[in-house]
Amino acid sequence: MGIYLAMSISKSVTKEEWKSVYQESLRLLEAFPLAEIRKVTIHGIDVYAFVQSLAKE
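The structure assignment produced for this chain is given below.
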């Protein structure tokens, strides 16, 4: 169970239109503790863990 956010942006969306949506998504990341599963190493052992989502460019 979970909530997943992913965006596919049409080429018809202008850079200016996308800019405001992108800025809003950054505010959501700051306002809510969104998480994702990431492979991390703990004491030399690779495990999958929930970590706080960060902006990716």
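Interim note for the steering committee: The longest strand covers residues 35-42. The chain is about 30% helix and 30% strand.
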